[in-house]
Specification:
With 713 residues, this protein is α+β, with helices and mostly antiparallel strands. The strands form 2 sheets. Strands 1, 2, 3, 4, 5, 6, 7, 8 and 9 form a 9-stranded mixed beta sheet that branches. Strands 10, 11, 12, 13, 14 and 15 form a 6-stranded antiparallel beta sheet that branches. Strand 3 and strand 4 form a beta hairpin. Helix 1 packs across helix 2, helix 9 packs parallel to helix 13 and helix 24 crosses helix 25. The longest helix has 42 residues.
């Protein structure tokens, strides 16, 4: 929008494209220029965003240091958590989520969060009449537990249940076991087997995850276990009411909300998640299916077989939480950063001011205990001395107060008695190169392995087989090609073994027809050799080699029985191979890097290994090239401040690669063991000098990466 008379110049895309196609040298310089503009702008925008955040942090630190704010924090976090518990009792349903989040943020900042959790859980359990209704209501204790679990469980859930949920999210296979909801009842036994295998995969991952459990969650499990056993001494599965009902099963059914998957489940995948969560919840509660859901009764055998195993898992997690010392708990990173703590403190102040009159006038408090507590902690003075919102914020707050202070329905505002408030908080009882060279390609598989022959419904579409299902897959596999080792994923199907990797913009695929496999041989160092007519592929496993070997042998035998003997190739394999070869052809008119471009570039790539704490990139230094992490997590530092954690698969150093006037704008440090690729700048220069058309395509790719990064700021 032109505010004044404006003159601007326009380079039309079509005209530029035609001109650059005719002059490759100009194309190279043009895309270098555009990428450099993007790099400089990204550097400026990143510094601006960081600067704004730093200003907010300084302001937040000053506000938290203010005596009035400290007074409010101290009185709310006083021994016994009386004011916090009272706020939980009087808050209306519309405010409960907000109250829970603000309490978690403030108490965690003050290192009193576990006191709050124990107080609210004790209140919850004390008002639970039977173990069967434990943690099944919508009380504030459960909201606080859910808020805290959600803040710390994402990475844990991604690692434990993420692989299985990713499989069923892509599946069209039916897991339906209800005869009233299935068209062909003859398939119900197969569906039960698939569903049982699915639940077993999740249970295996969970029960072997004690060492991966975040200490914050382990401590909460210990608190829940202790409080529940005080009320129900014979209870052995109290942790399950929290762990499964309030954390694991909601993430299974709604993985997008829990941050486990990017998209919500739908169709057969969603139904499979719902049925699996039913099995796991009954297992956690040690309750068998009955006449109410008779179609689930066949899974009672699964529950009987795994009850002791789950009980041991709960005991181990609770023991791990108990073993944490106060010093270890205090050293754990806070849930929220300083800016967010201030935001939640203001929100808590607003809730306390809104409900103040109801808190101090709650009837049925013996000897006016709560009124005395409020006076002793100085809550009224703390609220009165805090800075006042702006007029706009104050008016909005008053408007919200008028809405939320009224009960559902109509009539005047009523102050419930403490006895009624306690009653209302009770839970409801309702229910190498290719074969042309002498070098042998080597595959090294590590990470998660789905060891049973589960029909996942995951398609082999990436290899040209839209209807062929993936039976199992291996994350973080390795293909050694020359001196470069590519990290990717290995797929098994009923007819093929496929490997797929992506490094920078380079995509590599290998497809093996099981009918061409002449031998599957166990070798030393936990490896398996897959022999074909021309090539031997070596797969190395960190665990479960024998199970994987047995599964692959059965697949090869079954494929040959169906196909009538070995064959050098099938029409579909030949078509897929031809398509892959065509994709690698060097299109001289292409605007993007071709397969052959990447083959040339990756010949000079190197694999770098780093130990925990090693500096990969130092702030201000000139970088030798582009980096991309293949394994492990790195942290971004500005000075001594950690700005973010970055998972594997992220490109690093692209701005410094282009803008040599300044060094790296931030440091990158390994957080644990890290494996990364390095594409040296000197090698890129050599390649683009030898292949002039590659120059424009490479810098167009790099500029696109930078623009995408800038759009995400």
């Amino acid at each position: 929008f032109a505010h004044t008379n404006t003159q601007c110049y326009t380079l039309r895309h079509g005209d530029v494209k035609s001109l650059l196609a005719a002059q490759p040298a100009l194309a190279g310089r043009f895309y270098v220029y555009l990428a450099l503009v993007a790099a400089k702008r990204l550097r400026v925008e990143t510094d601006r965003v960081r600067g704004q955040r730093e200003v907010l942090k300084k302001e937040a630190v000053a506000k938290l240091a203010d005596a009035n704010h400290q007074a409010l924090i101290e009185c709310v976090c006083a021994d016994g958590c009386g004011i916090a518990l009272s706020l939980c009792l009087v808050a209306n349903s519309a405010d409960r989520d907000s109250v829970a989040k603000s309490l978690v943020g403030v108490f965690d900042y003050r290192h009193f969060l576990y006191n709050l959790i124990e107080t609210t859980v004790t209140f919850e359990v004390a008002n639970t009449k039977s173990r069967g209704t434990l943690f099944r209501g919508n009380s504030m204790a459960l909201k606080i537990l859910s808020q805290y679990a959600r803040m710390h469980s994402r990475k844990y859930l991604q690692k434990t249940i993420g692989p299985v949920l990713k499989v069923i999210s892509l599946s069209d296979t039916s897991y339906e076991v209800d005869p009233n909801r299935i068209t062909n009842v003859d398939n119900i036994d197969d569906n039960r087997k698939r569903l049982s295998d699915l639940a077993k995969h999740v249970l295996d991952a969970v029960c072997s995850s004690v060492k991966d459990m975040p200490p914050q969650l382990a401590r909460v499990c210990y608190i829940v276990n202790k409080v529940v056993k005080d009320k129900f001494p014979d209870d052995k599965l109290g942790v399950g009411a929290f762990f499964f009902l309030r954390m694991l099963n909601p993430a299974i059914v709604s993985p997008a909300d829990a941050g486990v998957l990017d998209e919500a489940l739908s169709g057969p995948g969603f139904r499979a998640a719902v049925l699996m969560s039913k099995i796991l919840q009954n297992l956690a509660n040690d309750v068998k299916f009955g006449s109410k859901e008779a179609f689930m009764e066949p899974f009672n055998a699964f529950i009987e077989a795994n009850t002791e195993r789950v009980q041991k898992f709960f005991d181990d997690v609770a023991a791990a939480g108990e073993a944490l010392s106060d010093k270890q708990l205090d050293e754990l990173p806070p849930v929220l950063d300083t800016v967010d703590v201030v935001s939640q403190l203001y929100r808590l102040r607003d809730h306390l001011a809104r409900y103040y009159d109801r808190i101090i006038t709650m009837p049925d408090v013996t000897d006016n205990e709560l009124t005395l507590l409020v006076a002793q902690t100085g809550l009224k003075a703390a609220l009165a001395n805090l800075e006042v919102y702006s007029t706009k914020e104050k008016n909005a707050s008053q408007s919200q107060q008028r809405k939320s202070s009224r009960p559902e329905g109509s009539g005047p505002v009523q102050v419930p008695s403490l006895r009624k408030a306690m009653k209302s908080a009770r839970p409801s009882t309702a229910s190498s190169p290719t074969a042309s060279g002498a070098t042998t390609p080597t595959l090294s598989a590590r990470g998660s392995l789905m060891t049973s022959m589960m029909s996942s419904g995951m398609s082999m579409e990436a290899f040209g087989f839209e209807t062929e299902e993936c039976i199992s897959f291996y994350d973080k596999c390795k293909l050694k090609q020359g001196k470069l080792t590519l990290t990717g994923r290995l797929y098994y199907s009923a007819k093929h073994v496929g490997f797929q990797a992506k490094v920078f913009g380079y995509k590599k695929q290998i497809l093996i027809s099981l009918r061409t496999v002449t031998e599957v041989k166990v070798v030393k160092n936990d490896s398996i050799d897959i022999h074909t007519e021309n090539v031997v592929y070596r797969i190395q496993f960190s665990h479960a080699r024998d199970q994987a070997h047995g599964a692959l042998v059965k697949l090869v035998e079954a494929a040959k029985e169906v196909g009538g003997g070995a064959a050098s190739s099938t029409p579909r394999v030949a078509a897929a191979a031809a398509a892959a070869a065509a994709a690698d052809d060097d299109d001289e008119d292409s605007d993007t890097l071709t397969g052959k471009d990447w083959e040339v570039l990756m010949e000079g790539a190197e694999v770098k290994l780093y130990k925990s704490g090693d500096m990969i990139i130092r702030e201000g230094e000139k970088l030798p090239g582009l980096y991309q992490t293949a394994k492990g997590t790195v942290e971004v530092l500005k000075g001594d401040n950690v700005l973010a954690d970055i998972a594997a698969g992220f490109m690093l150093g692209e701005v410094s690669f282009l803008d040599e006037s300044e060094g790296a704008s931030a440091a990158i440090r390994a957080k644990g063991e890290v494996e990364a690729y390095l594409l040296p700048k000197a090698w890129v220069r050599e390649c683009v000098a030898k292949y002039p058309r590659m120059r424009g395509r490479f810098f167009a790719f790099l500029g696109g990466v930078i623009v995408d990064r800038m759009m995400r700021l």
